[in-house]
Amino acid sequence: xxxxxxxxxxxxxxxxxxxxxxxxxxxxxxxxxxxxxxxxxxxxxxxxxxxxxxxxxxxxxxxxxxxxxxxxxxxxxxxxxxxxxxxxxxxxxxxxxxxxxxxxxxxxxxxxxxxxxxxxxxxxxxxxxxxxxxxxxxxxxxxxxxxxxxxxxxxxxxxxxxxxxxxxxxx
Amino acid sequence: xxxxxxxxxxxxxxxxxxxxxxxxxxxxxxxxxxxxxxxxxxxxxxxxxxxxxxxxxxxxxxxxxxxxxxxxxxxxxxxxxxxxxxxxxxxxxxxxxxxxxxxxxxxxxxxxxxxxxxxxxxxxxxxxxxxxxxxxxxxxxxxxxxxx
Lengths: 171, 148
Prior knowledge:
The complex is a heterodimer of chains A (171) and B (148). Chain A has helices spanning 6-9, 16-42, 99-103; strands spanning 53-57, 63-68, 70-72, 77-83, 92-98, 105-111, 116-119, 123-129, 137-145, 149-157, 162-170.
């Protein structure tokens, strides 16, 4: 195919061996792109999806939370915390978040609004008014990560059980 | 610092992605390719600027992108192999009026693309009047007519 006579007729730096290698790499890259897109669709890169969201709970099930294992920098994500209050007559619920975790993100809103927030050396304690007699209470933290890569988190009930979780924040 | 890293990442990412997508992807722009370019520009812009709309950020970003372009052109001049890697090589797709089908198929160019280039550039009517058609590094097709 690559007739040598061509050189004299048309001055062109054709290189079919290189061109064929290029095509091979191109085809491989298309497949790779397809795989990456499927992974993105499943949620491996955050932004929602089957894999992105996960749940963790304490052994007794009194404290559980739903969070995004994979999230993105400066993109909103949330922690959904479900608590069974230890004391049925309690009218407040105190949930803490590790200071290190809170420093890695911006808490944009908390539902319900905490009645007070306390700072301790290693944690922030959020106190919520609790409707007496409730079996469970759900608290939503809407947050935006400020730091990329691995962000370890820890959350617990003041004076009670706690959960450790890990988030991977894509830049 | 952040802006420079972002600009660098986007520049390298687009360079690699568009190179791997193949020459024809944006080389010869159809109206849809034009829309694609607009969307890519818009998406990139959001990620690059984030929520920093300051003049300083804009200047740093533009400076970085232009700087990268200069560096890339210097690298291409210094290392011909790098130039070939980034820009690819030209390839003959029609020889003495005969289309080289397997090359055209792999490069995603068809007869009508060649004929359209022949009409536009040289006013030729048929494949037979073409001595050489070359798929250039830029992704465009150039036509050398047969000598009368």
